[in-house]
Amino acid sequence: MSIDEAAPPRTATKPMAFDSGEFAAGAARAVALHLALFLILSGLASLVMGMFHDGPSIEVFLSALSGSIGLVLFVGVYAVPISLIATVLGILPALLLGQVMVRVRTFRTHVLVWCAFGVVFSGAVSLAVSHLLFRDQPSLMSAFLVTGFLSGSAAIPLAWARTASIALRADQGITTRPWFRRRRRTTSAVR
Fold it and tell me: Where exactly are the transmembrane stretches of this chain (predicted)?
């Protein structure tokens, strides 16, 4: 083993241990996925609310679509700083939960535990944000509550699963392809 290549933190007694780099990668994946899902769900929620409020027609659809684009930009301005603050607040509970779970071998159990953590943490953050920012606007509060809750609840376990699978595959010497990269075609692959 070279100096550049560190030993994996996982052992026989701690099969799901992790190092600080893996933890930071998981947190970054969770924030990025949450923001992407939150923006998509907010746009869809705006579109659906506009269609149900005024009735389905092409004019209403186009009006709701332009309104949802504005809402996505508005949500992006609020969601990024709030998500970063929530990440800072959620680091310690996530780290403690991860440390408690290092001896649990089954991947399925970890996914279920991180799903529960995502539901509880996202619910708490969504309620706190909606109470602080939208106390006197119940219709806005419910839309932001639902989209924030759903995106956070999905992002946390998905980010954990991706980070854990990359780390476990790396332990076996398998390199995982990065997502969203275009594959280059070689002349030998074309033939």
Answer: 23-48, 84-104, 111-134, 140-160
Q: What is the sign of the dihedral through the CA atoms of 53, 55, 60 and 62?
A: positive
Residue 114 near residue 156, CB atoms below 8 Å: yes
Encode the chain (191 residues) as per-residue pLDDT tens digits. Answer: 444 456 778 888 888 888 889 999 999 999 999 999 988 888 788 777 777 777 777 887 787 777 777 777 777 787 888 889 999 999 999 999 999 999 998 999 999 999 999 999 999 998 888 778 777 765 555 777 788 899 999 999 999 999 999 988 888 888 877 765 555 666 655 55
Task: Delimit the domains of the chain by residue range.
Answer: 20-167
Specify the pTM: 0.80
Tokens of residue 54, six digits: 């005024």
Question: Do the Cβ atoms of 17 and 102 come closer than 8 Å?
Answer: yes
